[in-house]
């Protein structure tokens, strides 16, 4: 992915509006084959940090799904998603807990 497009996507991922973040996470999944290995790792770190702070469950689900898809590239390791440990599992829906657990177990 070209730098300009990558920066545009990261800005959407970090947007203050949960709906924009959710759509950006979906876009990450849609463009999976477009990223360089470094971009994949960077997106995983950004999405993990964002997920650790996310307050909207629909956006959190999209972010976790995107991270899971990024791991399928082979360019994401447990260190890239370490921020997910900050999520209080008891405060999110059961289905999302499974995403977090699966990602942290690698």
Observed structural traits:
mainly alpha; globular; 106 residues
| Helical run tally | 5
Strand tally is 0
Q: How many strands, which pairing sense, and closed or not: the largest β-sheet?
A: none
Gross morphology is globular
The radius of gyration over CA amounts to: 13 Å
By helix and strand content, what is the structural category? Answer: mainly alpha
SSE string, helices as H and strands as E:
HHHHH
Give the total of domains. 1
Helical fraction equals: 55-70%
End-to-end distance: 26 Å
- Percent strand equals under 5%
Mean pLDDT: 95
Unreliable segments (pLDDT under 50, ≥5 consecutive)?
none
Blueprint (SSEs and pairs):
Elements: H1 3-13, H2 18-30, H3 37-53, H4 57-71, H5 94-105
Helix pairs in contact: 1-2, 2-4, 3-4, 4-5
Task: Describe this protein's structure.
- The protein has 106 residues and is an all-alpha fold.
- It has one domain (3-105).
- Helices cover 64% and strands 0% of the residues.
- It contains 5 helices and no strands.
- It has helices spanning 3-13, 18-30, 37-53, 57-71, 94-105.
- Helix 1 (3-13) crosses helix 2, helix 2 (18-30) packs parallel to helix 4 (57-71) and helix 4 (57-71) packs parallel to helix 5 (94-105).
- The longest helix has 17 residues, at 37-53.
């Amino acid at each position: 992915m070209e730098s300009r497009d990558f920066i545009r996507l990261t800005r959407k991922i970090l947007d203050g509006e949960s709906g924009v973040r959710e759509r950006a996470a979906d876009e990450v999944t849609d463009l999976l084959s477009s990223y360089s290995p470094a971009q994949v790792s960077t997106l995983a770190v950004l999405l993990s940090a964002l997920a650790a702070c996310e307050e909207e469950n629909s956006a959190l689900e999209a972010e976790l799904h995107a991270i899971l898809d990024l791991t399928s590239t082979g360019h994401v390791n447990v260190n890239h998603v370490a921020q997910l440990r900050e999520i209080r599992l008891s405060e999110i829906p059961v289905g999302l807990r499974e995403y977090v657990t699966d990602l942290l177990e690698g």
